[in-house]
Design goal:
The protein is mainly alpha-helical. It has 13 helices and 2 strands.
Length: about 240
Amino acid sequence: MFQVYRAADAIAEKHGYSDLSARIIGLLGSVAAETGDELVQASGSYVRGEIFFSSGELTTGRMMLERAAERIQDRDSDSAAATYGALHMRAAVMAARAGHAALATAHIDEATQIALRVNEGIHLGTAFGAASVRIHRLSLAVELGDFGAALRSATGWQPPTNLPAERRSHFYIDLGRAYYAAGRTERALDALHTAHCVAPEHICAHPHVREMIEQMHIAGPGIHSTALSALQHAMR
């Protein structure tokens, strides 16, 4: 039942139904508590983080994730380690979005150390491992406005195909954001096209993608107009 609610929340959240998403997360939390399983409850906290991203209460959300991580004995099992690492991974993004670079770095470094002990995979519904952490490092650099670092971190690397499509598409979305912020619109479009090929449903509903496309369209015609039109057509 926990996983059913989690799947329902993913659909609601990605289509922008934030009130419905929050209601589903409340039900998910109740089911998690009924299990008495600390790891399931921690996974519920990970999902609950979406509410704080939506509301902008990033410090409160980060602290909630930190408390959930503190309750986990990460050496008990691979699932425990992965859940602990995923909480720190999400806390890192919250810290970065709030502009707290040192906190973001501390959280992602903790997740990196955990990923050394865990094979990349789906753990209680969340992808975690070394590749997932690397993708989140790119996200942190973009959120902190360090686009040079973002582009350097992506150089010569692609997410492995055994990662879930949504997680892989996140890499290309954030790569596109970094290229666009650096004034490299053609490369940004290339990254977004790749993201669309990997996970078209995710891209079509992603607010950052829609924002970039709108900004490119407003900027007027240019050498990238054909590629932009093709992407706009693909997302209809």
